[in-house]
Design a protein that fits this description.
The complex is a heterodimer of chains A (140) and B (386). Chain A is mainly beta and 140 residues long. Chain A has 1 helix and 10 strands. Chain A has one domain. The chains are: A mainly beta (140), B alpha/beta (386). Bound molecules: zinc ion.
């Protein structure tokens, strides 16, 4: 079985992964136009301003959209299907969508839009260790 | 006078054999489609002074100059290889129309050759465990399959946000087979019921297998030229009345501002602003169906019905089927004719406007709209018979 892919931080994403390592979820905040985005980019995709900064958010949000992957499109996930993929809108940055799995939810069907979720951090140990933000259904 | 600086028309269309299996050489497929399109137009190699092609860059098609060599074309005043991120195969025709309108060249051959193997590009990840760049926010979560999970989530979100039901998506799949039964070129011609649709394997629930188009090996080609020149060729010219692109703000399949419609709405607004006709004038619509969500998006974005109104408008499928008030995807589209990746929608529109479609002909069709792709890659054309 192929090893699961793990993120390799770069100059633009480093602060995001460092915050995740401390158990903090961040969005990229643009102070020029006030909008936030994710994943972090070198400039704000809404207004083009330089230097979006990481802003810590609460980690609570709702499902914006979700699906249950039943056919693995990555050899490393062949044994993982079925599993949830979702876009989560943080409560305190609702214009943002964060791609995540939804842990602890029944994979029989997709988690409905609007379902409350909260973030946790999945530690991927070994070389290139990293903490991967992962949402789960509140109370799930 | 069209919305372009100089009037442009489609003069010829052609196809290779289109098949699910078998041995093939992309050069042979491309040459067959191009030769057929040139013969249809009534032009020879020396008449072609531009070539544009669209591909994934995975060995799925010869380059423009590769095709030049295959066809014995002496020289090119314009050529372009478009790779991957434009409005699918229609990109080549959009590019060609602009080059002709600009006076850079006179007669342009465009093609899309695609193979099942190359069609998997981006769809199966077997790469290294290090996820860099944009992949670092996707691959660790098992997000693969190109835009397949995105399309699954758009389907779920659309029904939650705008109403309707998953049966709306099934109407598109069933419609494709109804038309394909009338198209000898189509690869999937067996009838399909809504029950069959719902019984299909979920790929990424709620996305079902029959929401996805049908990969084939094949090529489609189109010859575009000035309207003036087209009038001296074999067929009545099919004029490019308007063309437009759209990306939408944030321009991304997952993170763009308009998650459900991507760039289709600004593209459609731009298109109608330039066209000499409007949505109410459309006789036939050939709308990308790589995924059923895309077709529904275009129907609404183009104003063929209102946003969120598809469910009622489609009339259990009767409106868009054979004999319906607004025929959609009259070849069977990529869901049933086979995935020729966009350009075949233009070829079908041209044949409809020329009245050549036999059993599936839309009577008296004079105005067609063709749209390709979705998300940050949207593009469309309005075509009228000269
Ligand atoms: Zn900004």
């Amino acid at each position: 079985m192929t090893a699961r892919p793990r993120p390799v931080p770069d100059p633009t994403s480093g602060a995001y992964w460092a915050a995740a390592g401390r158990g903090e979820l961040t969005v990229a905040q643009c102070d020029a136009c006030g909008r936030a985005h994710h994943p972090p980019e070198p400039a704000c995709p809404a207004c083009g301003a330089d230097g979006p900064r990481p802003r810590v958010v609460s980690g609570r949000g709702t499902v914006f959209a979700a699906c249950v992957v039943r056919q693995a499109f990555d050899a490393a996930f062949a044994d993982a299907v079925p599993y949830h993929l979702a876009l989560v809108a943080p409560d305190d940055a609702p214009e943002v969508r964060i791609l995540t799995n939804l842990l602890g939810a029944d994979a029989a069907e997709p988690v409905p839009v609007g379902t409350p979720v909260e973030v946790g951090f999945e530690r991927l140990d070994g070389p290139g260790a990293v903490a991967l933000p992962q949402f789960r259904v509140v109370g799930g | 006078m069209s919305g372009l600086a100089r009037d442009v028309a489609v003069a010829g269309v052609g196809y290779s054999t289109v098949a699910r299996a078998g041995d093939f050489d992309v050069r042979t497929l491309t040459r067959a489609a191009c030769t057929a399109a040139m013969a249809d137009a009534g032009v020879g190699p020396a008449d072609i002074d531009g070539i544009v092609e669209y591909q994934f860059g995975q060995g799925d098609a010869p380059s423009a100059v590769g095709a030049q060599r295959l066809l014995g074309i002496p020289d090119l005043a314009m050529f372009n290889d478009l790779m991957g991120t434009g409005p699918s195969g229609l990109s080549s025709a959009l590019d060609a129309a602009m080059a002709i309108a600009a006076g850079v060249c006179e007669t342009v051959l465009v093609y899309r050759c695609i193979t099942r193997a190359s069609g998997h590009t981006g769809a199966v990840r077997t790469g290294p465990p290090e996820a860099r760049g944009a992949l670092q926010f996707a691959a660790p979560y098992g997000y693969g399959g190109g835009i397949i999970p995105a399309m699954a989530m758009k389907k779920q979100r659309r029904v939650a946000e705008l109403g309707g039901s998953y049966a709306d998506y099934g109407r598109i799949a069933v419609n494709a087979r109804r038309w394909a039964a009338l198209n000898e070129r189509a690869v999937l011609r067996e009838p399909l019921t809504l029950d069959d649709y719902f019984a299909a394997r979920p790929v990424a629930d709620p996305l079902l297998l029959l929401d996805c188009d049908y990969p084939v090996n094949g090529a489609c080609a189109v010859v575009l030229t000035s309207r003036e020149r087209a009038r001296d060729l074999r067929h009545v010219p099919v004029v490019v009345d308007a063309l437009a692109y759209g990306t939408g703000a944030g321009a991304d399949w997952l993170y763009g501002d308009d998650f459900l419609f991507g760039g289709t709405i600004p593209c459609a607004q731009r298109l109608w602003a330039k066209a000499s006709v409007g949505p109410a004038d459309v006789d036939v619509a050939e709308l990308y169906d790589g995924f059923t969500h895309i077709t529904i998006s275009w129907i609404e974005a183009l104003g063929l019905c209102g946003i969120g109104e598809f469910h009622d408008w489609v009339d259990d499928g009767d409106r868009i089927g054979p004999g319906g008030a607004l025929p959609v995807n009259t070849s069977g589209g990529q869901l049933a004719e086979g995935r020729l990746h966009g350009l075949a929608f233009l070829a079908e529109a041209v044949q409809q406007l020329r009245g050549e479609c036999g059993a599936r002909q839309v009577p008296g069709a004079e105005v067609a709209v063709v749209a390709n792709a979705h998300g940050p890659q949207s593009g469309a054309m309005v075509l009228v018979r000269d």
